TrEMBL record, chain A:
PANTHER family: NADH DEHYDROGENASE SUBUNIT 1 (PTHR11432), NADH-UBIQUINONE OXIDOREDUCTASE CHAIN 1 (PTHR11432:SF20). Keywords: Membrane, NAD, Transmembrane, Transmembrane helix. Pfam families: NADHdh. It is a multi-pass membrane protein. Its main location: membrane. GO terms for biological process: aerobic respiration. The keyword Transcription does not apply. GO terms for cellular component: plasma membrane. This is NADH-quinone oxidoreductase subunit H. It is found in: Cell membrane; Membrane.
Automatic annotation (TrEMBL), chain B:
Belongs to the complex I subunit 6 family. Keywords: Cell membrane, Membrane, NAD, Quinone, Transmembrane, Transmembrane helix, Ubiquinone. Its EC number is 7.1.1.-. It is a multi-pass membrane protein. Pfam families: Oxidored_q3. GO terms for cellular component: plasma membrane. It comes from the Bacteria. NDH-1 shuttles electrons from NADH, via FMN and iron-sulfur (Fe-S) centers, to quinones in the respiratory chain. Couples the redox reaction to proton translocation (for every two electrons transferred, four hydrogen ions are translocated across the cytoplasmic membrane), and thus conserves the redox energy in a proton gradient. Its main location: membrane. This is NADH-quinone oxidoreductase subunit J.
Amino acid sequence: MIETATLAAAWGLVPAVVAVVATGLLLGLVVAVIDQTVLTGGGAGSGLSPLREGTRLLLEQRRTTLAPDALLWRTGVIAVPVLALLSLAVVPIGEPTLWSTSADLVWFNAMEALLWAAVWLVGWGPNAVHALTGGYRFLAQGLAYELPLMFALITVGLGAGSLRSTDIVAAQDDLWFVVTMPVAFVVFLAGAAAFSFWGPFAAPVGADVAGGVSSELSGVDRLLVQIGRAVFLGASAAMAAALFLGAGAGPVLPGPVWHLLKTLAVVVALIWVGRRLPVLRPDRTVEIGWMVLVPLTLLQTLVVAVLVLTDFYG
Amino acid sequence: MLTELSGGAIAAVAVLGVLAAAGGIAVFVVDSMARATFALLASFLAVAGMLLVLDLTYLAVITALMMTMEMAVMAVFMIMFMMNPAGLMPMTMVHNTRGSAAVGVGAFAVLVVGIWTVDWPTRDGEPPADPTRQLGEAIMGSHMLVMLVVGIGLFATILAGTVLATARGRYDRFGADLKASRPDDPVPGGLPR
């Protein structure tokens, strides 16, 4: 195994994990604040409202349902934020990642796939019809966007000749990947929004099913799931900045600052656009995913493969 | 092989192995669709953890990725094809319980006896610098034919299973003479046509 500098090696395992968890929670808070600001038009106190709501949920008494599957419900509720934070383990923070493997991209995608299981459990656990409907909506949407998302990730790995995040960042020294992989970039961000079931992909928590997956969540449970959604959106924005926008590359300012600025720009753009789109009906997404996005992303991969063969990426 | 691993790694593999076996047994014990599914998933994730301990990162994460998706897709198939789609009532998830348990225990016994009695060869040479790259080169090179045959076989099985299970065919969609310009689907799909 090639020894690469990781945060865990540089700072020791425990401080590095604490740093990554703190980064993740901060990113989540930033996402929640920007989301709230875009939604309410940025009135006074919209920056504080996620914190206020979080505190309220922390103090709220949990309610339960008749004959829930408590074990699986709790497992799903805890897994959502844990998986969001685990996906951050392979995102370059500053320069190194918490944990560098030879298959970082697949790790990120595996955490997303585990989110399928976790969110379905959150919907299944309470033994309630609206929650279960929401869980199945999440899976139905997943069938639509998972393949295009995988092709988008494969395109990035193909361009860099490596699945390791730090190699991918290094491969963008001359040209950011977003220039030659615009389709993959958009599909990656759409996948991120869909895995957080947010914006146009919020049907699993839709008002037409009384809140769906989250309809029976209360107190700490609801807080954990909301944190997981926001952290995952933030982590995906940071990953998008690393995979497509050259992470820390930029003049004058140090690398980590550039990466943070790009991450914030991606978050703002994603929320600004996402909050202006209508919620997609889950039964309408599969055909679009398979008839439009799969061919498009395959074509994108083909273009990048030809560029790789012509030594375009050096 | 065992001698090359640290004590902590051997302990981790042992614990994960017990978890994997326990997850497999739990599939037979629990009485709900969701619990059986996720007991199986826990078993597979323990196997992925073992691969991770052995530094086979790609195989580990791809195992976690594929098995999780498989379980999720299984949940979708259940709502499509089963009489108790939500699985909210107690039900067993195994058919022919005694037979399958016997096959499972028998296979486990044969494998364990084999693993501990075969005189495994010692490693010849060094571990590769990047096992992921080596695996990719093997799949895309010397083992390409095997992978293609297996891949097409799996794909054909999936299609055949779906075709056998669904009640609707092209005559239902396009009419008896197959001349309808728009397919008559219960779910319209997302594209205008």
